[in-house]
Design brief:
Layout lengths: L1 H7 L2 E7 L6 E6 L7 E13 L2 E13 L4 E13 L10 E4 L7 E31 L2 E33 L9 E5 L6 E3 L2 E6 L2 E31 L3 E23 L2 E2 L5 E6 L2 E2 L1 E10 L5 E10 L2 E2 L11 E13 L3
Parallel strand pairs: 1-8, 6-12
Antiparallel strand pairs: 2-12, 3-4, 3-20, 4-5, 5-7, 6-14, 7-8, 8-12, 9-10, 9-15, 11-12, 12-13, 13-17, 14-15, 16-19, 17-18, 18-20
Length: about 325
């Protein structure tokens, strides 16, 4: 039990504040010094969306029009897709047009409600080192505090989210909510979810098709921007610079549709679901450097519009948690 406890608390952080008698000079302190356009190249994202778990690549762009308006665009494409593949049970029905890998496209606009600055003491990290003793991991960080200017922006934001993703209709115990109708003979229907039964030569306890959603979203954003460069005697140039964007969105999807499926007897079935939610929400955070090429991050979690299934909480097919890592490239050329 003692070893387990030591393992669980193996990360121990030791931080040292150096006396403020260290000499430094402020080289620049301007949180308004932002490039007009920022391109984000994202070689990796992971989306733990219980409807369909994916990993892939993406590209994002931010554009500042003026002090009141700015825009963003996100494109993601999966290179690993849990559902868009051949599955072990070949007796199940598939989308009549095949399964394609996850695509997510999202334009967004920001309208500034408040843009203010505030003088505050900012941490300037001078050095950081780590070492291990037994089961403990120690990190020793040396820093000073330097007065700088922080910019706080509150904005309203809104946009449209388009997702096309492969689904396992039994996810979240939701197969029985899916109804199939013969595209030619409308009187011929069946409900998925019955074990041991077949339709058109295929088992109907589950199946794989595509789900398309088009959602309108609106919410609030809080940006915290610092851009402080300090020359510290004996340590050289040190920074406290970053653009952090925390956002909360609510979504409404007028479009939640499912691709037709085909059975072994070549019947094409129109697919519908009687238990969907058109509402959704998410809470997220984005980070990048305000005006230099640097690492960028984005993460969000929440519940997307889609089919509900029978399970609740984070096992609901609508729940998601994603993370994106890439490189941001600010420029004034566009």
């Amino acid at each position: 039990m003692k070893n387990i406890t030591l393992t669980l608390i193996s990360v121990f952080i030791s931080i040292n504040a150096i006396g403020q008698n260290i000499s430094y000079s402020i080289s620049s302190d301007d949180p308004y010094d932002l490039k007009r356009t920022t391109i984000h190249l994202d070689p990796f994202y992971a989306d733990a969306y219980w409807t369909n778990v994916t990993m892939g690549w993406g590209i994002r762009a931010d554009y500042i029009l003026d002090k009141s308006l700015c825009f963003g665009l996100t494109f993601r494409r999966a290179y690993f897709d849990m559902n868009a593949r051949e599955h072990i049970d070949n007796s199940l029905m598939y989308s009549a047009s095949g399964l394609s890998k996850h695509i997510h496209i999202e334009p967004v606009a920001y309208y500034t409600l408040s843009d203010q600055t505030k003088r505050t003491n900012m941490k300037i990290v001078l050095s950081s080192s780590s070492y291990t003793v037994g089961n403990y991991r120690y990190t020793n960080t040396q820093y000073i505090y330097v007065p700088g200017t922080a910019r706080n922006i509150f904005s309203a934001r809104g946009g449209v989210s388009f997702i096309n993703t492969a689904i396992d209709i039994s996810e979240g115990d939701g197969a029985s909510d899916f109804v199939a109708e013969d595209s030619k003979d409308k009187t011929r229907t069946f409900q998925f979810g019955a074990y041991g039964q077949k339709q058109g030569g295929n088992s109907i306890y589950s199946g794989y098709t595509m789900m398309k959603t088009a959602a309108i979203f609106a919410g609030l954003s809080y940006k915290y921007i610092t851009n402080l460069l300090v020359y510290v005697e004996g340590w050289g140039n040190r920074r406290n610079a970053g653009l952090n964007d925390i956002f909360l969105d609510f979504m409404f999807a007028p479009v939640v549709s499912f691709a037709d499926m085909s059975s072994a007897d070549n019947t094409v079935w129109n697919i519908d679901n009687k238990n969907i939610s058109r509402m959704g929400w998410r809470f997220g955070w984005q980070y990048r450097h305000p005006n230099k090429t640097w690492m960028s991050f984005e993460t969000a979690f929440g519940a997307r519009p889609g089919y509900k299934g029978k399970k609740s909480g984070i096992l609901n097919p609508r729940f998601f948690l994603d993370i994106t890592m890439g490189i941001s490239i600010p420029t004034n050329k566009f």
